[in-house]
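Lab notebook, bench 4. The sequencing result for the construct came back, and we need a structural model before the next group meeting so we can plan mutations. Quick request posted to the team channel:

Model the 3D structure of this chain.
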Amino acid sequence: MLKKILFYYFAVLFLFGFIFNALAAEKIEQPTIYSLRLDEATVVKGYTFISPDNDFKVGVVDQAVIEPITVRFKQIPDSHMLTPLEYSPGEQASLIWEFDLLADDGSIGELKKPIYVAVGITNEKMNRKVMYYWDKGHNMWRALPSSIDLENKLIRSVIHLPYARLALFDEPDATTYEAYASWYPTELTTRNELGCASNVYPMNTALWVCRLDDLSKCTITRVISRGPYVDGRVVDLTKSAFENIGNPRGGILGVRVFLRNEH
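Done. Here's the predicted structure in token form:
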């Protein structure tokens, strides 16, 4: 009799423990949904909807839709995206976000213009990051045209879809970087007036360095020393090289750095 009582006692404890853990897990995994209705006047002007932590933005430009619409977005736990993350094109560099635009009848809204999105960067690497959306029909992440906001640690893009799940990934080749560059007096080196210091490339690597706000302004350079030893700086250029892309009086400049093929 005592064995039966003990058996039922521990069975009940196990059952309650299982239910409690399941409810706790469900509570943790439930994402917060942010929602805002754009009325007719706001649709005409456009509006940018920003998450409380400033790590996700949806910008509905003026007249991107022709009727009032509700913008919703939420952060998706990685545990809900296990299959998509198996197909990651590079190291994950952000949270995963979902947004949708809904008409008043609950249907997916129709876009007349692309909208703008921005996703916050969560890793500290200087590797170039690209925004992707998950294409469930083809089981793949599709890249979006991406630009970086170094000051606010965001990647911005445009998208023509009224619904998407978005994430950032480091560029898979791991040889392109987007960060700050500074300069040092050219007189300090006699070997190469267009040289640079870098810790992320091997010595003597030939590079292109282009300013982020105008990628047509580039300079050639070559790694001739180590440095810089400052967070967020990928290269220090000689003053002569820096002058090819910017004014040295500014001190630092946002740049994209990538390999230069000499063959």
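The radius of gyration is 25 Å.
Will bring this to the meeting.
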